[in-house]
């Protein structure tokens, strides 16, 4: 067996301390990124193998990567159908991986087409839904207060944006600097400044106004420099909705977790807490 063949086979399983281990770590990082573009771990592994070691037959692939034979053939067909692997008309058939930049463009365009399709299907589904009359009879049960747990940064940010869109009077935000930065980069601060509603923000703890919001009217931002806790973050909307982070942007796991509720007592309590904090916070100069 030639050395280069050994490299092709062993780089994916190189042990710590081995010459190839650094390459293995880099391949793992590439694999993790490809997963974000919609590939499965084994699809990414096969794509990387073809991309780095050139055209290979299916037997070459499943022997080198130690994958099941039938799964390898299936994955190669999937990658070919997705337009990121091509097959050579030869015997045995050899498979080529497209250059990475072309592959990523292809995958991104595919996801865009899916989103466009889903957007249209959403409109059609809403029209169909509205054609069917509602048979719900309003009772005390249907009017009961509601609560929802939300996990993950994206769903939580979407929920906050929905609260802002439906707000008629004001939005109150109590957050850490890390939370404020996350809100800023998610365009939540821009949504607030572009809207006609009143809003106030307390940043806690903070010694000075964060640079990312220095362009905002300082009258609507106050600081709590002496608070020792960074794990407090909540949003109150119109005295009828509240979202409280149980794990905010400062949590070590970086896995955000929040609770949304429209309970009047819950909302009033958090609104009162915000009001008390506002009175005791420092004015920005």
User: What is the CATH topology classification name of the largest domain?
Assistant: Endonuclease, Chain A
CATH class of the largest domain: Alpha Beta
CATH superfamily of the largest domain: Endonuclease Chain A
Q: Largest sheet, if any?
A: 8 strands, mixed
Helix content class: 40-55%
CATH architecture of the largest domain: 2-Layer Sandwich
Q: Give the total of beta strands.
A: 11
Strand content: 15-25%
Q: What count of helical segments does DSSP give?
A: 10
Described by the principal axes of the CA atoms, the overall outline is elongated
Estimate nothing, just give the exact number of structural domains. Answer: 2
Mean pLDDT: 88
| N to C succession of SSEs | HHHEHHEEHEHEHHEEEEEHE
What is the terminal separation in angstroms?
73 Å
Task: Outline the structure in words.
The termini are far apart. The chain has helices spanning 3-10, 21-35, 41-53, 58-65, 69-81, 100-131, 153-166, 177-185, 188-194, 264-280, and strands spanning 56-57, 85-88, 94-97, 147-151, 170-175, 198-203, 221-223, 234-237, 241-247, 257-261, 282-283. 48% of the residues lie in helices and 17% in strands. It is elongated, with a radius of gyration of 27 Å. The strands form two sheets. An eight-stranded mixed sheet has the order 4-10-9-8-5-6-7-11, with helices on both faces. It has a three-stranded antiparallel sheet with strand order 1-3-2. Helix 3 packs across helix 5. With 285 residues, the protein is of the alpha+beta class. It has two domains: 3-101, Winged helix-like DNA-binding domain superfamily/Winged helix DNA-binding domain (Arc Repressor Mutant, subunit A); 147-283, Endonuclease, Chain A (2-Layer Sandwich), CATH 3.30.870.10.
């Amino acid at each position: 067996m030639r050395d280069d063949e050994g490299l092709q086979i062993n780089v994916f399983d190189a042990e710590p301390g081995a010459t190839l281990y650094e390459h293995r770590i880099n391949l793992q990082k590439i694999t993790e990124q490809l997963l974000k573009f919609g590939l499965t771990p084994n699809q990414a592994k096969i794509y990387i193998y073809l991309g780095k070691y050139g055209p290979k037959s299916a037997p070459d692939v499943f022997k080198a990567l130690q994958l099941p034979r039938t799964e390898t053939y299936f994955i190669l067909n999937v990658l070919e159908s997705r337009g990121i692997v091509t097959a050579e008309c030869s015997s045995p058939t050899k498979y080529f991986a497209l250059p990475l930049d072309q592959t990523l463009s292809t995958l991104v365009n595919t996801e865009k087409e899916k989103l466009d399709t889903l957007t249209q299907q959403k409109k059609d589904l809403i029209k169909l839904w509205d054609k069917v009359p509602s048979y719900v009879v309003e009772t005390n049960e249907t009017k009961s207060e509601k609560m929802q747990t939300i996990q993950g940064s994206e769903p939580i940010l979407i929920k906050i944006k929905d609260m802002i869109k439906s707000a008629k009077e004001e939005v109150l935000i109590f957050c850490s600097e890390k939370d404020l930065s996350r809100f800023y980069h998610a365009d939540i601060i821009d949504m607030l400044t572009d809207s006609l509603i009143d809003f106030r923000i307390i940043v806690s703890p903070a010694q000075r106004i964060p640079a990312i919001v220095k362009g905002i009217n300082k009258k609507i931002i106050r600081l709590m420099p002496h608070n020792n806790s960074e794990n407090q973050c909540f949003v109150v909307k119109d005295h009828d909705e509240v979202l409280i982070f149980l794990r905010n942007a400062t949590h070590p796991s970086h896995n955000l977790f929040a609770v949304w509720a429209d309970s009047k007592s819950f909302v009033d309590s958090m609104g009162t807490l915000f009001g008390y904090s506002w009175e005791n916070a420092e004015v920005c100069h």
